[in-house]
Design brief:
This protein is of the alpha/beta class. The protein has one domain: Rossmann fold (3-Layer(aba) Sandwich).
C-alpha cells in the first residue's frame, strides 16, 4: 500500500465551527466524498493515482466519532445536507470556484446534496456504489434482504453497548476480510492491509452516531436533483454489492442526462479498492475527455 502524505487544514464555517480536511498535491481540485466511517482510506488508490496532477481533498463527516478532547459529550449527528454545506466550506477555504466530486456509498447522497446546494461549484461527478437514496429499507430498489436492514439497525439501537463490542470485535478480527468477501462487500482483488485499515477506521465510530446516520440515509432522497444535473457524470458499481442494488445505480444513470455507466462484474461495495486499476483508468478517461 503506497504511503500518502497529507496536509491538514481546517475550513471555517458559520459561527465558531470548522471542518477539518486533508489535502495533497496541486492542480485542478478533486473533492472526495467518503463512505460511512472509512474516511480517506476508502479512496486511497484513487488519491495515489491522481496526486501529482490534481489537488486531492478529502474530509470525514463531523459527528461520527467521539470528541478528540477526550470528553464524554455525545456526538452531534449532522444531516446529509449539513455534510454538503461542510463541503462547500472546504471549497471556499481552498478558493476553488468549481471542483470535481468523486463520491462513494453515503458520499453519493452527499454529492447530490452538494449539487442541490451549489450547482455552479460542481464541474463533474463520479458516483460510486451509492444511489439517490439508500437502496435498502423502504426504497423501491431494495430487495427482500435489503428491506430487513432497518429492523437490524433498530435492534442494535436497543443494545448499544453490545453493538459497540460486536463492531469492535468484528472489524478487528482476522476473519473480517474473509467474511467481507463471502457477503460481497469486497472482491478478490482487494489488498488485505488496505481493508484492515478501513475496517479499523470504521470500528472507531460511535455506535449511536453510526446508527443515526444510517437512519438519515434511509430517510434522505435526492431523486429530485437528478433531472437538474447538467455536468458530466460517471456512475460506477458492482453487481455483487449487498448495499447498493443494480437498479439503484441504473436509476442514477437513467435520471441524469448523458450519464455514463460502468458496472463491474464480480465487484462488491468496495469497488474503488478491489477494482482500483479499472476504476482509476475510467476516471482518468472522464477527466481527460471532459477537459478537466
Amino acid at each position: 500500500m503506497r504511503h500518502l502524505t497529507f496536509e491538514a487544514h481546517a475550513a471555517p464555517l458559520a459561527g465558531d465551527d470548522a471542518v477539518a480536511y486533508r489535502a495533497v498535491s496541486s492542480g485542478p481540485p478533486v473533492l472526495f466524498c467518503c463512505g460511512l466511517g472509512t474516511g480517506v482510506v476508502g479512496f486511497h488508490p484513487q488519491i495515489a493515482h491522481l496526486q501529482g496532477r490534481y489537488r486531492c481533498l478529502a474530509w470525514e463527516y463531523r459527528g461520527l466519532r467521539a470528541p478528540s478532547d477526550g470528553s464524554h459529550a455525545p456526538s452531534v449527528v449532522r444531516s446529509i445536507a449539513q455534510h454538503a454545506a461542510d463541503a462547500v466550506g472546504i471549497m471556499d477555504n481552498e478558493h476553488a470556484p468549481r471542483v470535481a466530486l468523486v463520491a462513494w456509498s453515503l458520499g453519493v447522497q452527499v454529492a447530490l446534496e452538494i449539487f442541490r446546494l451549489a450547482p455552479q461549484r460542481v464541474a463533474l461527478l463520479v458516483l460510486v456504489s451509492g444511489g439517490a437514496q439508500a437502496a435498502w429499507g423502504s426504497s423501491p430498489d431494495a430487495g427482500f434482504i435489503r428491506r430487513l436492514y432497518p429492523r437490524i439497525f433498530s435492534g442494535l439501537e436497543h443494545a448499544p453497548a453490545l453493538a459497540t463490542r460486536a463492531l469492535r470485535a468484528g472489524a478487528r478480527s482476522p476473519e473480517a476480510f474473509t467474511w467481507a468477501r463471502r457477503v460481497g462487500l469486497v472482491g478478490p482483488g482487494l489488498d488485505a492491509d488496505l481493508f484492515a485499515e478501513a475496517a479499523r477506521s470504521f470500528s472507531d465510530l460511535e455506535i449511536n452516531a453510526l446508527l443515526a446516520t444510517l437512519h438519515a440515509m434511509e430517510q434522505h432522497d435526492a431523486s429530485d436533483v437528478l433531472a437538474e444535473i447538467d455536468v458530466p457524470t460517471l456512475v460506477i458499481g458492482g453487481d455483487r454489492d449487498p448495499f447498493t442494488s443494480r437498479s439503484a445505480l441504473e436509476r442514477l444513470v437513467n435520471g441524469i442526462r448523458g450519464a455514463e455507466y460502468l458496472l463491474l462484474p464480480g465487484a462488491g461495495h468496495f469497488a474503488l479498492l478491489d477494482h482500483a486499476q479499472h476504476v482509476n483508468l475510467r476516471i482518468d478517461k472522464l477527466l481527460s475527455e471532459r477537459g478537466y
